[in-house]
Amino acid sequence: MSKLALRGVSKLFGATVVVDNVELALDEGEFVSLLGPSGCGKTTTLRMIAGFIEPTTGTIEMGGRLLSSSAGSVPPERRQMSMIFQSYAVWPNMTVEENVAFGLRLRQVRDADARRRVREMLEVVHMSHLAQRYPSELSGGQQQRVALARAVVIRPSVLLLDEPLSNLDAGLREEMRGEIRRLHEEFRTTTVYVTHDQAEAMATSDRIAVMSQGRIEQVDDPHTLYTRPRTRFVAGFIGRTNFIEGVCDGADIVFDRFNVPRGALPGGATLAGKVTFSVRPQSMRLLPGGSQRPGPGPLVEVRVAHRTYLGECWDYVVKAVAGSTQLRVTAPPLEVYDVGQALWLELDPTQMAPIV
Amino acid sequence: MLLWLALMAVLAFLVVNPMFRLVSASLEEPGSQALTLANYRAAYGSLRHLQALLNSLEVGTGAALLAGALGVPVAWAVSRTDMPAKSFVRLMALGAFIIPPYLGAIGWILLTGPNAGWLNRLWMAASGGEHGIFNIYSMGGLIAVVGFSSFPYVFVFTNSALDLVPSEMEDAANILGAGTLQTAFRVTLPLVLPAILGGLIVCFLEAIALFGAPAMIALPARFHVVATQLWRFFEYPLRVEEAAAYSIPLLLITMFLLWLQRALTRRKGYATVTGRGGERRMIRLGRWRWAALAYALAVGALSVMLPLFVLLQAAFAKAWGRGLSLENLTLGNFRYVLFEQTQAQHAIVHTFVYAGAAAFAAMGLSLGIAYVVSRKLFRWGNALGFLCMAPIVIPGIVLAIGFYAAYAPPPLALYGSATMVILAFTTRFLPIAYASIAAGIGGIGMEIEEAVRILGGGRLTAIRKVLAPLLKKSLAGAWILVFILAVRELSTAIFLVGPDTRVISVMMFDLSEEGNFETLAALGAIMLVVSIAIASLGFRIIGRDFMLRRN
Lengths: 356, 551
Hints:
A: alpha+beta; Rossmann fold; CATH 2.40.50.140; 2 domains; six-stranded mixed beta sheet; five-stranded antiparallel beta sheet; 24% helix; B: MetI-like fold; MetI-like fold; 73% helix
């Protein structure tokens, strides 16, 4: 049985559908991100899980117990969850220690016990030396650690994070997302993490639910999500991609100037009619032009239209010599080609993902 | 929902019903419920009553212009120039706030009463003349006294707007060849014109709503203003309905002008006055800075130091007219009011108890309502906030008449009771407490409370453990402001207190009619000492600008 389950959850503000029929189930100890652009309903979904907002329709259950339904809901303070807020919401009138101890005190944990757990927790987040400080004397990253410690120390049944890193600068963000994942490995708390940053989601999550316009587009582990996006939105939102169209024709799928046998494509047997594929720029290879076929994969004759050098790689835009297809291809720094140069473009059918 | 209904009921009792009764009383035939316009005809049918209304407008206009002439230059000098002793000048503005206008009026009666006044005697001694040249008991005297005491309003409004004008605005004029004064008049002051006008409007409204100073000055001078005329309606035979009708224009003028004032100052001057645009340098006045200081000190002398000095002299004198000499010095007045005269003792106790109770009530009510409004707990929460702010448009006397009309008759028959006074004070100062607390709550994000709730604390835990500690300053500030204002409040009290519930302000008013200035001054000194002590406590815990902030 799943730990946390959202069944057909929708939320309307007035006539606007903010969350649209969301289905999501988390296993015990799983870390799931809600990823999507701003306004996609991810924060609203999180706040419904927390109990700050009631769903218009649908239910939220935890361990088989009904938490929210349109008929009413368990208030946030009785859900045994904890949450990390965008603003951290560290209480400025309490010291670091008092902040972290707050949840334990509410649970009437014995004093000595509480003190020990707070001490251990502060150690885990490397804040022991600042236990007596007030939040106004801490940096953003340190406040973030306090918020983390405060949320995790009570061993919540579910931990919710609402864009916790969006107020930090880039370097700190990377460090803190490592920290969040480390804490998760240590405590294995069932976690829902809201973010608009795909790198954050990929780095921290067991699975990612990509949301757009209130709907969940796809839920998968980061690798599957990247390599086998199922919708155009997911393919475009996670990393960069090219879209090319093919038509099923007997045993082959016919593209502009090249064919791919169905068998070469994962799941290719079930495709029919016109199909759009997502092809990642990294999944293709550019090879110097010449008469002989250099590789086993499908080849297209192309010319370089633009190029941008990014240090870590080249970013080429190539155009098929015949036809109008234009593709973006990434190449290692040493593969230098000039604009206008004729090349072979080699595709890898196993990395082409059909999307709906 | 229950909470909402409860708060709504309290506000209905405190704000809505008194105002409703005011209007309905003005339209009722005395003794019956029949609708009539007779009260309005009686109230405005006489030329004398119309003249009083005109007099009020004259006092208001004159006092506002005078306060502008005093306040604007001082505000400019404090905010924009290198005039010395700025904090002393600010302190005097604060002093003028704390001294209620009727005490200022007493001070000026002692200074410029015909022949007997200090300044007149000084003049006679200097010139050898038979008569003094000043006569406080005149329209000019009243305007001067009210203008002196209300200069801080203009000062504070103008000063805080000027503090936001970046120096670059002035540099731009200087580089084009404008001198200091030219820049001030053509650039700086026009930039803050809306704030100045806003301050003038507040002065005007204060002036027409005053009761004490006009009663002490205008009545001996044999003319009436609206406030004193309303007082007449309350003498025998009591004509509450006529009073209600007569007070309606005052209410309408106040509503209109406050609306205008909001509209003017909401624009925050002009677009440039945003607080950005960096650096502010003080204009170097050179030798002229001493002239600026002299002017500021003169203003301070007129509004604070001179009246305060003669009041203190009277408080410590056997007879104030005998002047400054050692054998005229006594503590007898204080002994009399503190230990001998039971009426005065009672008045002192009443004053602080009522003011304290009203301050707690206004603070608690404001906290509850500000919370409900800011956290959007109910759909119609905003209505509560609106009602909380509504009394700001009701002049003290008008509010008193409304309370009288609503709660003096049976079944409640609260007239003359402590409850009545406390309730009226609470209503009168509710907007002040609410504005301060609502601003405080608005500055505290929702998430900080949600963090409590998700960790297992209820709403009350969140309020007790997090919100209240964070609001400590706003709450204390609200309490102190209401307390100080309630301690000095005269115009509401005079209509509502009974023989057993007299407060210091009312007692001082009565003493002034008897001409017993020494006892009066001693009472006034006690009131000021307590007010100042509480205010400085406020500075200690909240920071020094809390009373001089705008609004």
